[in-house]
Amino acid sequence: MEIPIYQVDAFTAAPFMGNPAAVCILTSITGENWMQLVAREMNLSETAFLIPEGDGYRLRWFTPATEVSLCGHATLASAHVLFEKGHVSSDTVAKFYTSNGLLTAKKRGSWIWMDFPRFEVADIKPPLGLTDALGVTPTNVVKSGENILVEVASEDQIRECTPDFRQLVKLPIQGVAITARSTKPGIDFVSRYFAPWVGIDEDPVTGSAHCCLGPYWGVRLKKEEMTAYQASTRGGIVKMIIGKDRVKLGGQAVMILEGRVLT
User: Fold this and answer.
1) Domain boundaries 122-242, corresponding CATH code
2) 65 CB contacts (<8 Å, ≥6 apart)?
3) What are the CA-CA distances from residue 43 to residues 10, 64, 96, 251, 254 (Å)?
4) Which member of 46, 151, 155, 202 is catalytic?
5) 54-111 pLDDT tens trace
């Protein structure tokens, strides 16, 4: 059996930038063990699996180590494949049924806009050892679900951060974002995202993190529409429109590989 698979660079208009994701289109339900093996073989931060369901697709995401409940860049990559390959007309909405409910994607020119849940944040004291493991001096620390957001005073601190991942992974959280207000015209804030707990030391561009980063900075900057830059080595742009209960995430994507899984 041959199963189509694609590799897409998400949240970028340029190849080999942004965040790469694999997208595998299935015709029927396949075992979780097989999906995990494919994700491990692809060895990207996420591999997305699409299965036709009703008027859309069942969507699941796997890192090389585990399944995750929400992923922005692999959803963007999935929508890009569906639009580019004609599975979904570019003038209609792509629907994804996920463990986080219904997600949608709509193509507008060279951008794809996704409708995601909004995640609120709450002030907390930094977990013991967090700032030492990150090597930064926080100006504010908040929590959103199992994720921690650490604000620092400058964009330079974001770029220069070199976490101790062996110490970081010992903390009882799922992921940590560091963020700062941007000094660049047209960019509202910058961030980086670390998730060694799920097998990803640093995620190049993390759409789902902006479901809480967006509301966090929206309050501080008094904006509903923002543009963010994730300052990993690859880098990527995420646009946001902050709603009462949802966050619209906008990004571009580039397909760079196309092939078949032979099983």
Assistant:
1) 3.10.310.10
2) 40, 198, 199
3) 16, 6, 23, 23, 19
4) 46
5) 999 999 999 999 999 999 999 999 999 999 999 999 999 999 999 999 999 999 999 9
Question: What gap in Å lies between CA 146 and CA 119, rounded to an integer?
Answer: 11
* Residue 66: how many other CB atoms lie within 10 Å: 12
Phi/psi for 74 (5° steps) reads: -75, -25
Whether 46 is a known active-site residue: answer: yes
Residue span(s) of the chain under CATH 3.10.310.10 come to 2-117+249-262, 122-242
Q: How far apart are CA 108 and CA 80, in angstroms?
A: 12
Q: What is the mean pLDDT of the chain?
A: 96
| Residue ranges in 43-115 assigned as alpha helix (H) | 72-84
**Topology classification of domain 2-117+249-262:** Diaminopimelate Epimerase; Chain A, domain 1 (3.10.310)
The 3-state DSSP class for residue 142 equals strand
